[in-house]
Amino acid sequence: MTSTAAIQVEGLKKIYDGKILAVDDISFTVQRGETFGFLGPNGAGKTTTVSMLTAGLRPTVGKAIVDGLDVSHDPDEVKRRIGVIFQESTADGDLTGRENLEVAAGCFGIAAAEGRDRSRLLIDQMQLTDAADRLAKTYSGGMRRRLELAVGLINRPRILFLDEPTLGLDPQGRAGFWGFIRKLRAEDGLTVFVTTHYLDEADEMCDRIAIIDHGKIVATGTPSELKDRVGGDVVSLRTPEGVRDISPILSPLAGVTSVQKQDGTYRVKCQHGETFVPQAVAACTQAGVGVIGVTVKRPSLDEVFLDYTGREFREDEGPTATDRAVMIQRIQGQMRGRR
Amino acid sequence: MFRELAALTRREFLKLARNPQAIFTSLMLPILYLLLFGNGFSFNVAQYVNPSLPIPPREQLLGLLDFYFRGAPNYYSYFAAGMVGFVAVTATLFIGANVIFDKLFGVFKRTRGTPAPSAAVFGSRLIAGSAQPILLAFFVMGLALLFAHVSGLHGLSITGSVGVVGGLQIVAAIMLLSIMFATLFLTLGVLIDVPQTYFAAVNVINLPVLLTSDALYPWGTMPAWLQNISSYNPVSLAVNVLREVMFGSGSYPYGPGVYLLGLFAWAAVLVSVAILLVRRALRPLE
């Protein structure tokens, strides 16, 4: 392991109940001070990976080193050094914001007076001063998320894990949350590991990204590297139903690197979309095929995902692997109870 | 460990204090039992024994009723002592449900995401969860004593000489019984994830335990087989301590210390099993 690595994962695998493969032999490294995005649709294995890295779930196979410690051997020490913002809301609604923080400080073994000081600082930092002594159940979604972020920072972690941190927040809440993370990174040099299925967030916030699908990492790199790998612009051309295949017409045109046909739409990767479109329309017209729709896209992470998995990012969102495992356990439990 | 325990215990008491409905509901049950059930069932033993009866039959009758109520001057006093044991159990029923709701609302997950030891996570809930039934048990005792001075109501009449040792024995019995059942239901809450399953399990335990004890029935009217079961029931053991101290030890084969010892053995077994199960369930890595 390199001395600068904040997280190093080697051959990590998680199989629930010996049957459900949620994470399949993944390896990656996160450098200190880096914001590393784990991108994938629901059920891809993101939350299971976070649970293993934050010492909440035992890996079936493989090794995860967090801040120099093996999570399987030193789970409590790992927990002491990291901050975690869970996907679901975990703020205690019957406690005030301040009490939530003070209790969290106590859970890390921080002395009461020190806990009060840290809570006060974090409340100010997260702009929750006016609401600090209100019950957390009266907070808006954005305020709750900020409170949870403050709770995640109470132990002054070196690495912050964010599991779908902006899920359910409105655009303003999302922007506000990321504003705080940006500030924290600039001030404290915090390492951030974030899972998300908001591609725009990953593109904007992450230094590097790993794309995970069906439990496997299919690509890793900086957002620009990944987009460059798509190979320039992506032009989609639509033709009327029942006309001949235009792939042979498009492929020889200048700058074209690939042509894929999908449901009557041709997805063409080319170096310069603007110059390709007039050429393509002219060539199709000359061959007697009309083009009824054209879109030109600069490469985005959507395109990257499609490129690596052959599927649209949001086309198969379903229950997560963890959800599936919990459901199966409950059904089995109920069946046992009926016997 | 102490800081974690203190912080989490504070959380439990804050939540308890912010839920006045739960406190009100937990007070209503014993008040209704004391006021309606106890008074409805009660009859004064001496009142039904004709003073003009010749001495031997009178003594026989009084002796028989004394046997039924194990030295208590009337059913109400017998029942009131039983109610103290009854609430020490029933007030612990919801403790495990709170754990399940904390799991469903993510609060338990967050606590488990910290290095707080499982002993602190469990211990904090046990402290707060036992405090409520202990306080409630003393409230019931106080209320029953008060009713004895209200015209038209039956109340608890203490006929024995309680003293310091007796008082401590009563406190110990109530505490052991509450801690034992709080431990049991907390463990169920840690092990079970679905509220419906938890409440089904609670009913399976709660009703047989209470109905095989002599908390509410006159002991002397029980069939012999039920008396035998009742003798080993932890609720009966606790109530025996209370009745013996409050009404005198004439009707009991052993002193309060023996029953306390039995209660302690029950508590030791339950707590040991709970430690094993909870340590397994709350180990750092699932």
Describe the structure.
The complex is a heterodimer of chains A (339) and B (286). With 339 residues, chain A is an alpha/beta fold. Chain A has helices at 46-53, 75-81, 97-107, 112-125, 141-153, 171-188, 199-205, 223-230, 247-250, 273-286, 301-309, 321-338, and strands spanning 5-16, 20-31, 35-39, 61-66, 69-70, 82-85, 159-163, 191-196, 208-213, 216-221, 233-238, 256-262, 265-270, 293-297. Chain A has two domains: 5-91 and 139-226, Rossmann fold (3-Layer(aba) Sandwich), CATH 3.40.50.300; 232-298, Alpha-Beta Plaits, CATH 3.30.70.100. In chain B, 73% of the residues lie in helices and 0% in strands. In chain B, helix 4 crosses helix 11 (234-247), helix 7 packs across helix 8 and helix 8 runs antiparallel to helix 11. At the A-B interface, helix 2, helix 3 and helix 12 of A face helix 1 and helix 6 of B.
Characteristic terms for this protein:
heterodimer; A: 339 residues; Rossmann fold; Alpha-Beta Plaits; 6-stranded mixed β-sheet; 14 strands; disordered C terminus; B: 286 residues; mainly alpha
What's this entry about, in short?
Chain A has 339 residues and is an alpha/beta fold. Chain A has helices spanning 46-53, 75-81, 97-107, 112-125, 141-153, 171-188, 199-205, 223-230, 247-250, 273-286, 301-309, 321-338; strands at residues 5-16, 20-31, 35-39, 61-66, 69-70, 82-85, 159-163, 191-196, 208-213, 216-221, 233-238, 256-262, 265-270, 293-297.
Low-confidence spans of chain B: none
Helix content of chain B: over 70%
Intertermini distance of chain A: 51 Å
Mean pLDDT of chain B: 85
Number of domains as seen in the coordinates of chain A:
2
Strand arrangement in the largest pleated sheet of chain A? 6-7-8-3-9-10
Order of helices and strands of chain B: HHHHHHHHHHHH
Instruction: Give the uncertain stretches of chain A in residue-range form.
Output: 315-339
Euclidean distance between termini CA atoms of chain B: 21 Å
Order of helices and strands of chain A: EEEHEEHEHHHEHEHEEHEHEEHEHH
**How many separate domains make up the residues of chain B?**
1
Question: Measured on Cα atoms, how large is the radius of gyration of chain B?
Answer: 21 Å
Q: What gross morphology of chain B would you assign?
A: elongated
What share of residues are in beta strands of chain A? 25-35%
Helicity of chain A, as a percent range? 25-40%
> Largest sheet of chain A, described in full?
6 strands, mixed
Can you count the beta strands of chain A?
Answer: 14
CATH superfamily of the largest domain in chain A: P-loop containing nucleotide triphosphate hydrolases
Binned strand content of chain B: under 5%
CATH second-level architecture of the largest domain in chain A: 3-Layer(aba) Sandwich
Per DSSP, the total helix count of chain A is 12
